[in-house]
Amino acid sequence: MSPGAHMRSVHGLVEQLKLEASIEKIKVFENACKVALLVGVPAGSNPFWKPKSRTLF
User: Fold this and answer.
1) Domain count of the fold of the chain
2) Given this model, what pLDDT does residue 57 score?
3) Is 10 a member of any domain?
């Protein structure tokens, strides 16, 4: 890698880190009551659950 390309790469990484550092963080415990993985999903409201119907012939 040429020195110029290396500097551009490092500059891009620095810019990415600056961007990530400026993002407002949300504490996990503040939103824990809204996270389905922590509190679970009521069976009746799960949009991914497909009811299984079985018919006997």
Assistant:
1) 1
2) 62
3) yes
DSSP string, 1-57: --HHHHHHHHHHHHHHHHHHHHSPP--HHHHGGG-HHHH---GGG-TT---------
Domain assignment present for 46:
no
- pTM for this predicted structure: 0.43
Residue 30 lies in a domain: yes
Span 16-53, pLDDT tens digits = 999 999 999 878 777 788 887 888 877 777 667 776 77
Q: Is residue 45 part of a domain?
A: no
